[in-house]
Predict the structure of NADPH--hemoprotein reductase.
Amino acid sequence: MTISIWRYSHLALAVSSFVFILLASITGIILAFQPISEQIQPFKSADFETITVAETISTLKQTYPEIIDVQIDANSFVLASVITHEGDSKTGYINPKNAQFIGSKLEVSPFFQWVTNFHRSLFLKSTGRFFVGLCSFLLFLIAVTGSILILKRQRSFKKFFSKIINENFNQYWHIVLGRLSLIPIIIITITGVYLSLEKFDFLPTSNTTHNIDFDAISVTPELNIEDFPVFKNTQLSEVRAIEFPFSDDVEDYYTLALTNQELVINQFTGEILSEIKYPLVAFYSELSLNLHTGKGSILWSVILALATANILFFIYSGFAMTVKRRKSKLKNKYKKEVCEFVILVGSENGSTLPFANVLHEQLLEAGKKSYITELNSYTTFNKAEHLIILTATYGQGDPPTNATKFLELLKTTQQPRTLQYSVVGFGSYAYADFCKFALDVDKAMQTKFKQFLPVFTINDKSVDAFKQWTNSWTEKIHVPVQIAEEKLVAKPKLTNSLTVVHKTDVADNPDQTFILTLKAKQAKRFVSGDLLAVYPANDYRERLYSIGKVNGHIQLSVKYYDNGLGSNFLNGFSLGSTFKARIINNAAFHFPKKAPHVVMIANGTGIAPFLGMLNANTKLKTVHLYFGLRTSESYKLYKSQIEGYLKTQKLARLELALSRDTNNNYVQNLLLRDSEFMAATLKNKGVLMLCGSLAMQNDVLKTLELICEKHQLEGLHIYKKNGQIQLDCY
Ligand SMILES: Cc1cc2nc3c(=O)[nH]c(=O)nc-3n(C[C@H](O)[C@H](O)[C@H](O)COP(=O)(O)O)c2cc1C
């Protein structure tokens, strides 16, 4: 499969440096805990930020006869080396306010030392250091190419951080966590490279040799140490180290190492004898070390640990995505010159390929000569009679990477024979331009070839919808093609345990419909409009039901069919029974919180998600419900719930369309009757939600089209695109 240059680079970099990055990440996570373990020690004085050098030196002088030096580390702990009145030499952390010792010097544990050495050089000395530095740079490039991929996906800088649609666990979290840890990872990698360059002496070194004019040093005017202006005006927090004079000789002096410079100070007069500004390299070295290791900040250490743990997840999810993409290969038995059927595929992430492959294999099995290839490989097909195009859509109706050249190739390639074509679009209602590229391809094909079947669109890789299309296609072409469902649906891994807490009796309802209420064992977030996937035979066969969340439970409305796999399975349960199923997020069909008002249109069991949404309408947003059923007897199953919502004003208005009762009505008739209201709803940014049968969806959409024309509104596709018309029909 063709992949974009950025994805290729991202992958190639990851593959080439994977082992080093893996080892560096694991050790990096461990090492992030070292600064944390230091910082939680109680050695930082409460008034550290306000105390001056003058105060600390004077208390030290009053307490100890001799002081060798004072050092302040990244944790703001003050380490002093002194000689006590008893003549003992003592080193440890002091309270800078009263010069009392509060703890002994922290030594890095042998374990952390071992891990640090491994992290820096993998025990391979200079060679190891070189590779670790190089991999740090490669990781930087991986982060950059990853950001470019996100930018291309999101289409602009402005949308870099906007919502991502969760279509696939690995892909979703790879992007979400990638964006969150991008800045820490860039910092880790740049500082890692910097530290390596420093170790290989690639950076200029700083020179701190003072030039002191010893002939000009004077002992007068002598000042008390606490009156030295330089000590009075310097906060301890600006200091790295203070070296005390070795003796009372005037040629011995204080050396004050600050964050940006080093000063030499006359021990009698407080005069600054020499000052050397540190070069920028020294500043960057310290900054790099602190940023890379987390020294001095618990918060930054935690961020580093999390970002590094994310790298491990990126390794896993990145490879899992690649394996998934590469799993489906396009294989041909016959040469393109001899094939009657040509299947052209447009796919970015590989999920359209199994659909195309299944069709291809079935045609071969039926004894037909079929050829399969990518849309970008479109060329002349000498014997072809049927072109079948299966393509996904990306971005704002753009082609997937392996289909970018197709529309151009279509213009320039002349087929030797007259062809018939069919286009199947794979897309998602969650995006504004649903299957737009497939629709564009269909339009372009119309100018050259004869349309065999109208363009068909498939939401969210629906196997059922694909089977519907193949049925119509094979019926028309008279080739027996049976879609092997097991090749398209993988056995689920992530299932939730559910318990039946309420169930109505099928026999009580004239349409053999029942309500099933389930309690999820594990706390799992879901909302009305999400889907419940059940696996009746514990195999690849999946049946989907729209969820209504009612009082925290999953409420399904199920129509029983004698031979229905899903409905028989669910109807077989009694109170207290448990089974496993999977909850699928269906973000494209959640209650629109921002809409000024909502019109729900349902028939039959399509009411299920709406019952849950109404239950959650505690803010009493104005909701109108158009509900189609057969008879007033059918309505009894839902009556008490719906009337409860009407009473509490969670539902403002109910319009029942009973097709087999006296009024012989369908929801679309009522919509036409209320066309003024429907038009005003669309005009005023209200939202229409449809759930139920595909036949009802088609009739309702036709009616809405008429209403839009009559009231001179925008085309229906505009309202679908901006989310004012939301569909969940089956
Ligand atoms: C970044 C991104 C953008 C998408 N944009 C659209 C879109 O504009 N219209 C649409 O109908 N589907 C869109 N989709 C959904 C895909 O077309 C759909 O999931 C398809 O089944 C993916 O097929 P593939 O795995 O073969 O590439 C988008 C998916 C992603 C990940």
Notes: The chain has a mean pLDDT of 92. The pocket of flavin mononucleotide is lined by residues 153, 167, 347-352, 392-395, 397, 400, 426-428, 431, 433-436, 461 (CB under 6 Å). The radius of gyration is 36 Å.
